[in-house]
Automatic annotation (TrEMBL):
The gene is bioY. It comes from the Bacteria. This is Biotin transporter. Its main location: membrane. The chain crosses the membrane at residues 29-46, 53-71, 77-98, 110-133, 139-162. It is found in: Cell membrane. One of its GO terms (molecular function) is biotin transmembrane transporter activity. PANTHER family: BIOTIN TRANSPORTER BIOY (PTHR34295). One of its GO terms (cellular component) is plasma membrane. Belongs to the BioY family. Pfam families: BioY. It is a multi-pass membrane protein. Keywords: Cell membrane, Membrane, Transmembrane, Transmembrane helix, Transport.
């Protein structure tokens, strides 16, 4: 990896750590409203797939090692094995997929990546939450639909902010448009 790749990953990880701290506990949901999903979508537009993947993996590693980077300043392996762990552990796959689809198919690819990525994230998250809480999968899934709608709004916001930035970056540094992850 080049120094510039490592720098991008470090900056992306820092952004993701800060975004996760913007968290609102929701009274009826076991999963808080955070901006970490926004950050993942945003970074997936700006970064090549490998950088997106490495950024989110670094975020999870920092949290697993005890740094308070997860929502609400939480950390540790217990979080990854707890009620939000399935969501967190699916994020690297989601980030890679969205970035890969966006880099290959532009706007259409982003939305296909978002759709498939959110399906993966919600399936993994709800499965783990269902197992831990001993609640039927379908009950939790129905309860999570309002959060899914919020995540779709985050996807719109992330694309609205990130896409113009990619156009400017392609003009400033033409080699980044050909760079693949």
């Amino acid at each position: 990896m080049k120094t510039s790749d490592l720098t991008h990953i470090a900056l992306g990880t820092a952004f993701l750590c800060v975004a996760a701290q913007i968290s609102l506990p929701l009274p009826v949901f076991p999963v808080p409203f955070t901006l970490q999903v926004f950050a993942i979508f945003f970074l997936s537009v700006l970064m090549p797939p490998r950088q997106s993947l490495m950024t989110v993996l670094m975020y999870i590693l920092l949290g697993a090692l005890g740094l308070p980077v997860f929502a609400g300043g939480s950390s540790g392996i217990g979080i990854l094995m707890g009620k939000t762990g399935g969501f967190l552990l699916s994020f690297p796959f989601c980030a890679y997929l969205i970035s890969w689809m966006h880099k290959r198919f532009d706007t259409y690819g982003y939305w296909v990546g978002i759709t498939v990525g959110l399906c993966i994230t919600y399936t993994a998250g709800v499965l783990q939450l269902s197992f831990i809480s001993n609640t039927p999968f379908r009950v939790i899934l129905w309860g999570m639909l309002p959060l899914l709608l919020m995540d779709l709004l985050k996807a719109i916001a992330a694309y609205t902010v990130a896409y113009p930035i990619t156009k400017v970056l392609k003009q400033l540094i033409p080699s980044t448009s050909a760079k693949e992850g």
